[in-house]
Amino acid sequence: MTRRQLLLAASGSVAAVTAGQELLRRRSESDRTLRLLARSRTTTGDTVQPVVRSLLWRASRTAIIVCDMWDDHYCKSSVSRLEAMIPEMNRVLDGARSLGVSVIHAPSGTMDFYAGTSQRAAVRTAPYADPPVPIAGWCDLDPAAEAPLPIDDEHPCDDEFVGDRVRRWTRQHPDLRIAEGDGISDDGQEIFNYFALKGIRNVAIMGVHTNICVLGRPFGIRQQVRLGMNVALVRDLTDSMYDPRDSPFVSHDRGTELVIEHIERYWCPSILGADLAEEHLAS
Fold first, then answer.
1. pLDDT the model gives residue 35
2. Which residues in the chain show pLDDT less than 70?
3. pLDDT at residue 43 in the model
4. Residue 74 C-beta-side C-alpha neighbours within 13 Å
5. What's the CATH code of the domain at 71?
6. 35 phi and psi, to 5 degrees?
7. Same domain? 136 vs 7
8. Beta-strand pair 62-67/202-208
């Protein structure tokens, strides 16, 4: 072999090694693992106790659903609490995206606003996937699987003077960022199709309202559990619809905590939003 041939061969070997290293780097990044401290509740006799355990979720197989973070609501105090969550929610979503976690924005009833966007098309055009159980239009409380909710939410708004219960939202809140690679849908079948296409098996749900839409929507906790997904509620990035003037006559924050405890006992564990951000990456 000539000197020129030897040099070319050596150059090719270096290039091959470099390409292989780059492939391994990309594969390593795409296979990052999230370490989630998941809180559930177990019953021993008459005692219900919290139990914390670590869950390891591959980021590439994980999605966050952002539920009903609308731009307005008839209950103005709920809007204030929603807006207070947005800065932390943006931070968590940015960190999750950087790890390869998928993000689905689900502001129910506002899909016309997002018609023609790439984020809407990404979910709407995913090929049909056959779900293992029917996807309901709404998942009511299931007496066979859970006790009654621990709060009275028949008249849930805690405004001093409650306005008419009419729709006031038109879109997701504009301060909550929608990134180029995100998806948008409020349809349970569409979201299931998208998850099947991307190999998603782990679903973290944040947004409002914990006792109503987060549990009951066709993409919500009850439905995702029934579909066989690994599900977690993001407990610090959610809020309930509850009026302390109603049973059990506790503060609004405590009412939300009671609903979270109900979910931890009967449906799925909860995590903190920071668990989905980069500083909680596990090697």
1. 94
2. 1-30, 278-283
3. 87
4. 11
5. 3.40.50.850
6. -100, 110
7. no
8. parallel
Shared-domain flag, residues 21 and 41: no
Q: Which of 107, 23, 25 minimizes the C-alpha distance to 69?
A: 107
pLDDT at 46: 83
Residue with token string 């030897």: 6
Number of domains in the chain: 2
Q: What is the predicted pLDDT for the residue at 31? A: 72
Tens digit of each residue's pLDDT (9 = 90 or more) over 115-158 = 999 999 999 999 999 999 999 999 999 999 999 999 999 999 99
Tokens of 122: 């990404």
Same domain, 82 and 205: yes
Model pLDDT, residue 1: 57
226 in the same domain as 90: yes
Are residues 9 and 41 part of one domain? no
Cis omega (within 30 of 0) for bond into 209 = yes
Contacts of 64 (CB under 8 A, 6+ apart): 93, 96, 101, 102, 103, 104, 203, 204, 205, 206, 234, 276
Range of the domain at 26: 1-30
Closest CA to 235 of 201, 202, 272: 272
First to last CA, the chain: 45
Residue with tokens 């909680």: 280
Residue 88 shares a structural domain with residue 19:
no
Same domain, 148 and 21: no
Sign of the torsion angle spanned by Cα atoms 281, 220, 181, 82: negative
Which residue reads 């939300």 in tokens? 256
Stated pTM of the model: 0.88
Distance CA 153, CA 149 (A): 9
Residue 64 and residue 105 in contact, taking contact as beta carbons nearer than 8 Å: no
Statement to judge: residues 26 and 43 lie in one domain: no
**Per-residue pLDDT at 264:** 98
